[in-house]
Specification:
Layout lengths: L8 E4 L12 H14 L3 E4 L11 H15 L5 E6 L4 H13 L4 E4 L9 H12 L6 E6 L1 H4 L5 H10 L3 E6 L4 H9 L5 E4 L1 H8 L5 E3 L7 H13 L2 H21 L6 H9 L19 H14 L6
Parallel strand pairs: 1-2, 1-8, 2-3, 3-4, 4-5, 5-6, 6-7, 7-8
């Protein structure tokens, strides 16, 4: 079945905060430029890693405006993430971003309590129906939203919501990966690098540059190996991803939220990128950052060439 959204490598741009927790605009623009120059064609803001749960209305507007300005005339699609407990606030942010020229959005369920199946349908209609000219990607993160959808749910939703075009499917269960990739639905599924290579063996899917963004050439190598169904190359690169995760959790032992890890990955090619997270969340210490970088250079020297 033809997909509503193109096959892609998807990446997020993180928010660098000053000591006063204002946007460090120059570094934000620099990060966007690096991703654009690397060949990424779809870049989103305000996911879990992009601290979309913490920004206020003024910050949302400012950061979205800079994103749109920096990506104009590059051929790159800006995607605005929208996270809130309030669907009214989500709708307002979508309107603000639309006024700035955004037409692609990543949306997440409210996380106060797990939605029922009926409430899931209400949520998508409430958020997507008022914006038929926009395209929506669902961030299916059960760990945060408490509700993890499966292939059968998206088959149903695709029939109801014509502008639901993609799902960031952060579930590494091989059975679930196979089911969504093989599902008879026009929705494009975006998998993590730990599920993407396997998923490609069963059908078309897209890839999120997460931990593998530490070394963008390896990210592209895995993405292309999936398209070509090059099993040997997929296995080789997936092993490297597994090693990178082992290094991460052996050196960075402080409990932190996902955004801290993503800012650590970015520091591999932007050493000056600040690790601070918007309060009250705490980040990885400078000592652990140094330990991680040292261990990574030993374990995966090819990622630092």
């Amino acid at each position: 079945m033809k997909k509503r959204y193109p096959r892609m490598a998807l990446a997020t741009v993180l928010v660098p905060w000053t000591h006063e927790f204002k946007l460090e605009e120059g570094m934000f623009r620099e990060c966007l430029k690096i991703l654009v120059d690397s060949g990424v064609k779809f870049i989103y803001t305000f996911g879990t890693a992009g601290e979309g749960y913490s920004v206020d209305e003024e910050q949302f507007e400012q950061i979205t405006r800079v994103q749109v300005e920096e990506l104009s005339d590059t051929g790159v699609t800006p995607i605005a993430g929208v996270i809130s407990l309030s669907t009214s606030e989500m709708i307002n942010r979508i309107r603000v971003a639309c006024e700035l020229g955004v037409r692609d959005f990543q949306i997440s369920f409210p996380s106060w309590g797990e939605l029922t199946d009926e409430e899931v349908d209400v949520f998508f209609h409430q958020v997507c129906d008022p914006f038929p000219e926009c395209r929506f990607m669902h961030y299916n993160n059960g760990g945060r939203s408490k509700k993890m959808l499966k292939a059968k749910d998206y088959i149903r939703l695709a029939q109801q919501i014509p502008n639901l075009v993609a799902v960031k499917f952060m579930n590494d269960s091989l059975a679930d990966v196979i089911n969504v990739v093989r599902a008879d639905t026009p929705i494009q599924f975006i998998l993590s690098e730990r599920g993407y290579g396997y998923g490609c063996l069963f059908g078309e899917c897209s890839m999120l540059f997460s931990s593998i963004i530490t070394h963008l050439p390896s990210g592209w190598a895995l993405y292309n190996a999936g398209i070509e169904k090059d099993i040997d190359e997929i296995v080789r690169l997936e092993k490297e991803v597994a090693v990178s995760q082992e290094v991460l959790f052996s050196t960075c032992t402080t409990p932190v939220i996902d955004a801290a890890y993503d800012k650590l990955y970015i520091k591999s090619f932007m050493p000056a990128f600040p690790m601070r997270l918007y309060p009250p969340y705490q980040t990885i210490s400078d000592e652990q950052v140094s330990a991680y970088m040292s261990a990574m250079r030993q374990a995966l020297p090819q990622w630092f060439e």
